[in-house]
Write a structure and sequence with these properties.
- The protein is mostly helical and about 240 residues long.
- It has 2 domains: about 60 residues, Winged helix-like DNA-binding domain superfamily/Winged helix DNA-binding domain (Arc Repressor Mutant, subunit A, Orthogonal Bundle), CATH 1.10.10; about 130 residues, Up-down Bundle (Four Helix Bundle (Hemerythrin (Met), subunit A)).
- Helices cover about 65% and strands about 5% of the residues.
- The protein has 11 helices and 2 strands; from the N terminus they run ααααββααααααα.
- Helix 5 packs across helix 7 and helix 5 packs antiparallel against helix 11.
Length: about 240
């Protein structure tokens, strides 16, 4: 009489078919539903809230941004608060100094000049590309119209938004993702500065200046961009000093 087959451990092998149903039920079980996609990271959400407060003027330049206060206000850990502040520091909307902690940025005249020099380099190169390709982006005309509307309404915050749109539309028209990305990084700093410094412009003067700037810069960016930004730098410095 033949002996029953043995399994690898020396025990008798189960007859054919025994246990297959259990294994099949395991393999055929419906998969568990995937967990819901995670929402924005907490540090990013806190950074977004702080950024909005800074760029609206609710948090003035020089205002301390303390980890312990953020932790208590938002119900987050000190580590998460530190990460959120690092986001703002990387954007130059906040500065971190030894023994003083983190504060909303205050751009002095030297920082303003350095910022405008970087804008000049990026915008000049973008407009050189635009000129060489014979492009006149429609988005610029739309942004100029928005600037005119904001000025007419005396809306300084809206004016800043439209002003940024004019310059960004010119830069983006070059089609260079890298130039556009780097230029966009400067927008928060520039807005933070202009939010608290309102140069003396007659109603409609900013729109008129920028319509002329667009026409001229599309033909001679190397000269016109530099002249425009040097003029705006002087206007900002004079506005800040009350001259």
């Amino acid at each position: 009489m033949p002996r029953p087959a043995r399994d690898a451990r020396g025990g008798a092998a189960a007859p054919a078919g025994v246990g297959d149903e259990t294994a099949l039920s395991r393999t055929a079980a419906p998969p568990r539903p995937a967990p819901p996609a995670p929402g924005p990271r907490t540090a990013d959400a806190v950074a977004d809230t702080l950024r909005a407060a800074i760029l609206s003027g609710a948090l003035a330049p020089g205002t301390p941004l303390r980890e312990e206060e953020l932790s208590a206000t938002h119900g987050i850990s000190r580590h998460t608060a530190r990460t959120a502040l690092a986001r703002l520091t990387a954007e130059r909307l906040a500065t971190s100094e030894p023994y003083r902690g983190v504060r909303v940025s205050q751009l002095d005249d030297d920082a303003l000049i350095a910022l405008q020099q970087l804008r000049c380099a990026l915008e000049t190169e973008a407009l050189r590309i635009v000129r060489d390709r014979g492009i006149h982006p429609a988005e610029v005309d739309e942004a100029l119209d928005a600037l005119a509307d904001a000025e007419a309404g005396g809306d300084w915050s809206g004016t800043l938004d439209a002003h940024a749109r004019v310059h960004l539309a010119l830069v983006a028209a070059a089609g260079s993702a890298r130039i556009t990305e780097e230029y966009r990084r400067l927008d928060g700093e520039m807005r933070l500065l202009l939010l608290h410094v309102r140069p003396a412009y007659a109603p409609g003067a900013l729109t008129a200046e920028h319509r002329a700037y667009v026409d001229e810069a599309l033909h001679d960016p190397e000269r016109v961009v530099r002249a425009h930004l040097e003029h705006s730098t002087r206007a900002i410095i004079d506005g800040r000093s009350g001259r």
